[in-house]
Amino acid sequence: MAVPEGIKCIIKSVEGVSSILDDPRSEKMRLMVLVPTVRDAVTLCKKYKNIEMVNVGNAGKMTSGEKITLTKEVMLTKEELDALKELVELYPDTFFQGTPSMEKKLATNVLKNL
């Protein structure tokens, strides 16, 4: 996985990353936090209000069940779709962008087209 220069990448459980984000030293760092589900992103976004951006990227790969296609890369279950709606309320600028070279699509616009 590629990470932009000057950004640290942390892959942990939600609880594990919370301990890092609670550490005052993390306030001086630019961190890229990856979570396996949209629900996990909601959990973190409720707890931490200083999140710069939320990219749903390739969401839906880690969940099983009947899925609704939002974009070519994003397919969500009903539960994850509900979590996305909640996430967009917390962070209206939430977007989908699987890779840096892909077009950035605002989640609010994608949800309007469902």
Structure description:
This protein has four helices and six strands. By secondary structure, it is of the alpha+beta class. Strand 3 (68-69) and strand 4 form a beta hairpin. Helix 2 packs parallel to helix 3 (78-90). The longest helix has 13 residues, at 78-90.
Quick tags:
about 110 residues, alpha+beta, Fructose Permease, two-stranded parallel sheet, 4 helices, globular
Write down the CATH topology: Fructose Permease
Q: Which CATH first-tier class would you pick?
A: Alpha Beta
> Which stretches are low in confidence, meaning pLDDT under 50 for 5 or more residues running?
none
Tally of individual helices:
4
What is the domain tally? 1
Q: SSE order, as H and E?
A: EHEHEEHEEH
Main pleated sheet: 2 strands, parallel
Strand content: 5-15%
CATH superfamily: Phosphotransferase system, sorbose subfamily IIB component
Helix percent band: 25-40%
Can you tell me the overall shape?
A: globular
In whole angstroms, how far apart are the ends? 31 Å
Computed Rg: 14 Å
Main β-sheet, spatial strand arrangement:
1-2
